[in-house]
Structure prediction request, 304 residues.
Amino acid sequence: MPLHPQAEAYLKLFRTDLGVPLSTLTPEAIARLRTLDAFAEQRGPIIPLPVVRDDLAGGVPVRVYRPEEGDRPLPALVYLHGGGWVFGSVDRNDALGRDLAVRTGAVVISVDYRLAPHHPFPAAADDAWSAVQDVFARPDAYGADPGRVAVCGDSAGGNLAAVAAWRARDAGLRLVHQVLVYPIADVAMDTPSYTTYATGFGLGADEMAWFVSCYGGDPDDPRLAPARLADRAGLAPATVITAECDPLRDEGEAYAARLAEAGVPVEARRYEGAIHGFFGLPGFFDQAAEAREYAAARLTEAFR
Prediction:
């Protein structure tokens, strides 16, 4: 299908994901970009909630969103933001954390994991895993029901969520669901969608290569590339969301297919004409609200 009209309008304003030449991204420039957010007004409203607090989960900074008063144990959703393992933060994704709490009725634990290149692989994966472990180890600290814990992430956060899901399985911790939004499932960058959408569709193939180089790690290590996991049986049921005009589309859909082949209940949905990053920008894309509602419905069903 052709680009969605809203994606076309967006790309007239922002032709690339980072908006600057890769050659200019010195450590100082990276630090400066982290303080800026050109999309702040497009990330959605800051919904008032009864409880929003910053805390530590296994030593990792998190922000906890609780959609109701009281101490009744709620389902728990560990959310991991995108940004190529280099950018993004709890602050930048504050609107999304609040929105997910309202839509799912869950306490949302948004993880401020360490960022590359200052903290290369496997720092982000280890922080994500530490946060998930802490929710199971100290559910009362979050007002959470340890029998109803799920993970969710977009892009690099989808990668971290997928990695946390298999580490939870191997540790004997039962996640009820994993929502992977256009996840980085592999780092081979050799799929047809990487060729078709290499340039001119926001996130570019060269930018993805730069993100991967900043994070580092062995391409065959499933902590970096969950698609390389040898045994996928017994992983948490999954929802995989992809964007049609996204270099990461094919690897996300292939990962969903491999989960299904391993007997994992999985549902994959592609948003036609959409580009990478749409999920986080409801101010630009109507499909963001549609995808969030779909993800929330899948999570709500799993929490039941």
